[in-house]
Design a protein that fits this description.
The protein contains 4 helices and no strands. It is mainly alpha-helical. It has one domain. The longest helix has about 30 residues. The termini are far apart.
Length: about 90
């Protein structure tokens, strides 16, 4: 009986993780897109949220880069500023 419970727990764990990651991904999008003013900023935020919360095997080494994007892209009003933030985060965390 204990083995059956352990097997069921082990099999269901990935589904719980996916549901948690989906909720975190959605929260990330809602929180970080509210101030998006350009399509380029929107695209970068979507990518960062996906990489941080939804990607099956996220690259932990790149996590600070994506967090940098989310921190500094909020409210940016020009594509040139988005480009500068992306390259600065890239330089800082690579």
């Amino acid at each position: 009986m204990k083995i059956l419970i352990l097997v069921l727990l082990f099999v269901s764990l990935p589904f719980v993780t996916v549901a948690r990651d989906e909720a975190a991904h959605n929260d990330c999008l809602l929180q970080n897109l509210k101030g998006a003013k350009t399509d380029r900023a929107t695209s970068q935020v979507r990518t960062a949220c996906y990489q941080l919360y939804k990607k099956f095997m996220p690259n932990k080494k790149r996590q600070p880069y994506y967090e940098c994007l989310l921190e500094y892209l909020d409210g940016v009003e020009s594509d040139e500023a988005v480009k500068t933030i992306v390259s600065t985060c890239e330089e800082k965390y690579n």
